[in-house]
Amino acid sequence: MVNIDYALNVICKETKIIGTENKDLLSSVNRVLAEDIYSKDNLPPFNKSSKDGYAIKSEDTLNCSKENVCKLKVKGIIKAGDFINDTLKNGEAYKIMTGAPIPKGADAVVKIEDIEIKDDNLFIFEPINENNNIIKFGEEIKIGDLAIKKDTVIRPVEIGVLASLGYSSVKVYKAPTVALIITGDELVDINSDIKNGQIRNSNEYSLKALVTNLNAEVLSLGIVSDDRENLKEKMKYALEKADIVITSGGASVGDYDFVKDILKEIGADIKFSKIAIKPGKPVTFATFNEKLFFALPGNPSSLITTFEKFVKPTIEKIMGKDDFHSEQFKVIAMYDFECEIGREKYVYVEIKKKDGNYYAYKVGSQCSNHLMTMSRANGIIVIPKEIGHVKAGEAFNGEFIFGINFKKYIKE
Ligand code: AMP
Ligand code: MG
């Protein structure tokens, strides 16, 4: 049995970027840029007004005051998208809308709230500085400047930047294809009624959701019965077609848990097959050529915990995100419980914040077969390996769990 950090280190060492791919702009959100993005344009491409107002020559307003009101002649109106081929002379003004190009000869915009207008006459009551309310040509970025660095995660704001620079597609790190093999003779699909001894195959759906949430590609091979030859064929096929293979179930020590044996048989390099984590001990990690193989436990909350802890960072690293750790904080247990010595425990709880401190409340049984507990939780407390009893009032490290949404978001 290996420690969590050891397991993460081994996995991290085996995990490499598998290439790059071009994505059209919108599908690149949350992906990682695999190229530097340089500006193809000057932004803005012309001097433009940042306000609705009047384009003027600032020198015409030098001596303006409430006592000495200046009067300028309004020649016309420029709206966004217009281009006026005229040069403003002293004593003249153009009404101008936000985003419209500043006409030649003008060097300032006085905003509409600061003036009075009567017929075509504009009255100004104070001096207006040069460049007032003008967004200058190339002020935001110039042709050839670096706009977004390689390795940046593309958020909606970067989508906007790329769109403004005229990029309709970008090069990002390639998403791995993740094959899913679900083992278990007890499983039926979610549309089926449950007969004696059967349960619905929830893991396939959780796994698909987990993988697609990370923007990776799913290759689902469905339920495979606990039949050695059949399973072996599916595993070989998956290793051929996918970059990462995940099996659910069949990885423990039961009579029909064949995954590990098959891995040995086909010559995969098994790096470890047990991790000191609860839920989730029976995790096998193996490599086969350049492919990565995770045999995850069938217990639903073990499966999700180990996916989050070990597979998610793997997929993220392949896709250019190299951040393994979620933020931890001190959390105080609010109930007593017993736990297993020898493994690091991830205890699913509801975390509440009061007076700047975090408190952990019980939400249900920690049996790794129960997904309901995880679904009711908004966080975990991490109980170290050597601890077997937790008493209310003791402090541990805690973190908010994955999949958190606003409904479950922390209540102050
Ligand atoms: P296993 O890891 O195959 O020994 O399975 C451990 C437990 O998880 C058993 O109680 C199974 O019935 C349950 N289980 C296995 N696979 C699934 C699945 N695909 N969906 C829901 N529960 C499962
Ligand atoms: Mg099984």
UniProtKB/TrEMBL annotation:
May be involved in the biosynthesis of molybdopterin. One of its GO terms (biological process) is Mo-molybdopterin cofactor biosynthetic process. The keyword Transferase applies. Pfam families: MoCF_biosynth (PF00994), MoeA_C (PF03454), MoeA_N (PF03453). One of its GO terms (cellular component) is cytosol. It comes from Clostridium taeniosporum. GO terms for molecular function: metal ion binding; molybdopterin molybdotransferase activity. Residues 179-317 form the MoaB/Mog domain. This is Molybdopterin molybdenumtransferase. Belongs to the MoeA family. Keywords: Magnesium, Metal-binding, Molybdenum, Molybdenum cofactor biosynthesis, Transferase. Its cofactor is Mg(2+). Its EC number is 2.10.1.1. It is an enzyme of class 2 (transferase). It comes from the Bacteria. PROSITE patterns: MOCF_BIOSYNTHESIS_2. It catalyses: adenylyl-molybdopterin + molybdate = Mo-molybdopterin + AMP + H(+). Pathway: Cofactor biosynthesis; molybdopterin biosynthesis.
